[in-house]
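In this supplementary section we document a worked example of the pipeline. Step one takes a protein sequence of length 284 as its only input; no multiple sequence alignment statistics are reported here. Step two produces a three-dimensional model, which step three serialises into structure tokens for compact storage. The input and output of this example are shown verbatim.
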Amino acid sequence: MKVRGPWIPCLFTFWMAQPHEGVILRVGMALSKPWIDHFLVGPLQMRCSVVTDRASGDTIIIDGGDEPQRIIDWVDGFRGVGPNWTTGPENKEVAEQQFAPNRRVVALVNTHAHFDHSGFIPVLQAHYEVDWFLHPDDDYLQTLAQVSGRKYGLSLPEPAVADEPLVGGEVYTFGTIELSVLHTPGHTLGGCSLVLSTTDGPDHVFVGDTLFAGSVGRTDIANSGGDFEVLARSVHTQLWPLEDTTVVHPGHGPITTIGHEKRTNPFVGEPAGGAGNFGFGKYA
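The serialised model returned by step three reads:
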């Protein structure tokens, strides 16, 4: 992958991924009223989140693990079965009334590599010809996606190979969309949470299966490196410092907020005490 521009020593490394051009070093900006679509896909109803900058049309797909044609059809032209939830236009007519831009997918990003989150990434890669970002600690787990999917009767393509690594503590700018990456292992070795800052509302964090509304991700899935103590530490040190109003977009189940989970989550919140209470979690 070609890298343009000098590396500049600083506290964080800022990336801008553009289709066909590789990575450009630059600093992004917080979004105004981000357009977020949720698609609940596959047999496990995994949440794929599609985030669009309303000003530029630049778009990233987070955890595009299943039903790729459904996602492609809607993102490219409001065709077929739309999202289960959205902050954006509900159809093409509304989009035109709101002068919404045509969307341009600039990157694929994953929170982790369980098959329901990553199994159909190759279809999205082939269609959009953009880079796919994954934490390298989940590279081995990703090689098992096809085999794991068979247990659920799924015929998956050969597992995708990440084009670029996600690194905790860095800020990546994809087109005009900026994400801060938090490494939050515990459900998997390479699990990450992705923070989207806004200028005029609550921030958003896409947590994969680290944290759910009233629960946490399982820590007993084979070949994943799951560890409840590690997961609880990830939540306490990486997620709890976020603003209480931050909207949490989990990999399964309802959305919630950081503040609500701090106060009420029985596994890692105040009811669990300082270290958290062990449990396998509600969702896969």
